[in-house]
Design brief:
Largest sheet: 8 strands, mixed
Pfam families: Acetyltransf_13, zf-C2H2_3
CATH topology of one domain: Aminopeptidase
Distance between the termini: 149 Å
GO cellular component, one term: nucleus
Helix content: 25-40%
Number of strands: 13
Order of helices and strands: HHHEEHEHEEHHEEEHEEEHEHE
Radius of gyration: 43 Å
Strand content: 15-25%
CATH superfamily of one domain: Gcn5-related N-acetyltransferase (GNAT)
Number of helices: 10
Structural class: alpha+beta
GO biological process, one term: mitotic sister chromatid cohesion
Keywords: Acyltransferase, Cell cycle, Metal-binding, Nucleus, Transferase, Zinc, Zinc-finger
Shape: extended
Protein name: N-acetyltransferase ECO1
């Protein structure tokens, strides 16, 4: 009896012609042998330590290192100082008159700014011109010819004005107070005062003007008359003698170095000059006289004042201020206290 045998597998020859799909095993392929998983591992293996997310401790260390590098870059260059026992560190500038401590950064910075302002003055620009109508700034004189043939103008406004003009005046008054060693003016004084500025055209085409002079005129009620030269001389001589019963008890000393004394009796006086300043580069041109004359003519509307009649007073002037006061006022100017 013949038996039919059915083949359930292919022969060796037939296996060579099998398709590639028949070579795929029937069992599931593990993830470890997957080519896609191998590529991911290969990508991770190519990552460096810099690309990896640092741990919190390492992140704090890196941030500290970066901060230390920034501090080293920002560190200022140190200056070696030496003690000099036989010389003082206090200096007095011959150009601006300001005393400062040499070697102190704050003092030297203040001196540079102050010296530059005193020599060249400050500027009046287009920003201030735009606010002139808003702040009631008046031009009281124009085309004023100076001794060097330059022409300028004088403007006037309230001393307690705000805005950019007020900021400009505040910076100017700080410079003036430092120069004159004077205390700042109180808000009450500024409320009763007017500022007069002398403006000169700048040599540059920027359209800005130089502030070549400034005075602050204050409304006052009384002032004291200045003693005559003969009375002042008598006081000086009596101070040198042993006799104390002299006329010195009836006079008040304003500036003993300059021999300036005044009578203690208060006299009615409508206007006082609390501040007078002209930069050193614009002096000897008659700017102070023009400012004082403009203030005397316009301070009280419709009532010009005459300094020779004692209608104008100064507040404890310096040596240069005393010379201007005597020359302009003809000996009639008085002294008052702020």
């Amino acid at each position: 009896m013949s038996t039919n045998v059915k083949r359930t597998y292919g022969s060796k020859r037939g296996s060579t012609f099998r398709s590639k799909s028949s070579l795929i095993p029937s069992s599931p392929v593990s993830d470890e042998s997957s080519p896609k998983r191998k590529r991911v591992l290969q990508e991770h293996s190519n990552l460096t330590d810099d690309n990896l997310q640092p741990t919190p401790k390492r992140a704090r260390t890196l941030s500290r290192a970066k901060e230390n590098k920034k501090e080293i870059k920002k560190q200022k260059t140190l200056t070696q100082l030496h003690f000099c026992i036989d010389q003082t560190t206090l200096r007095s500038c011959t150009r601006c008159g300001l005393s400062y401590t040499k070697g102190a950064p704050d003092d030297e910075s203040l001196h540079r700014t102050q010296c530059l302002r005193i020599q060249k003055g400050m500027e009046w620009g287009r920003e201030e011109d735009k606010e002139m109508a808003k702040c009631n700034v008046l031009q009281v004189a124009s085309g004023i010819r100076l001794k060097d043939k330059k022409k300028g103008r004088i403007i006037c406004f309230k001393a307690d004005v705000g805005g950019k003009i007020g900021s400009k005046l505040t910076a100017l008054l700080e410079t003036i107070n430092l120069t004159l060693s004077s205390p700042p003016l109180t808000p009450e004084i500024l409320r009763d005062s007017k500022a007069y500025l002398f403006l000169l055209p700048s040599s540059t085409p920027s359209g800005r003007e130089k502030i070549a002079g400034c005075i602050i005129a204050q409304r006052i009620s009384t002032a004291m008359a200045i003693a005559s030269p003969a009375e002042c001389e008598a006081v000086v001589q009596s101070s040198c003698s042993s006799d104390t019963h002299t006329q010195s008890t009836a006079l008040i000393a304003v500036d003993t170095g300059a021999g300036l004394f005044c009578h203690p009796t208060p006299l009615p006086t409508p206007m006082g000059i609390s501040r007078l300043f002209v930069p050193s580069t614009h002096r000897r041109q008659g700017i102070a006289r023009h400012l004082l004359s403009a203030a005397a003519a316009t301070f009280i509307h419709g009532c010009p004042l005459d300094p020779r009649k004692g209608e104008v007073a100064f507040t404890q002037p310096t040596g240069d201020g005393s010379a201007v006061m005597m020359d302009w006022g003809g000996g009639g100017v008085r002294i008052y206290e702020e």
